[in-house]
Design a protein that fits this description.
Elements lengths: L1 E4 L5 E3 L9 E4 L2 E8 L7 H4 L1 H26 L1
Parallel strand pairs: 1-4
Antiparallel strand pairs: 1-2, 3-4
């Protein structure tokens, strides 16, 4: 069985009981093909993309709070 990550193009050859109609040939052998939308290579939780988004939000919140305190101190 071959699993294909649609987003990254990574291929994983392993044993599985998943039924599929598609096949792919690799090194002269024909394998059943299963296309995955999300794997550990493309999921934000595993790639760290999610933490970057969270950090950006924290910085913006800090800047907004800091802008309010400096504005009131000047007045």
């Amino acid at each position: 069985m071959m699993f294909l990550d649609v987003q990254t193009g990574d291929k994983i050859v392993t044993r599985s009981t998943v039924n599929t109609r598609e096949t792919v040939e690799l090194d002269g052998k024909t394998y059943p093909l299963f296309k995955c939308d999300v794997t550990s290579k493309s999921h934000p939780f595993y790639t760290g993309a999610q933490t970057r988004i969270v950090e950006t939000g924290r910085v913006e919140k800090f800047r907004a709070r800091f802008a309010r305190t400096t504005g009131s101190a000047k007045a």
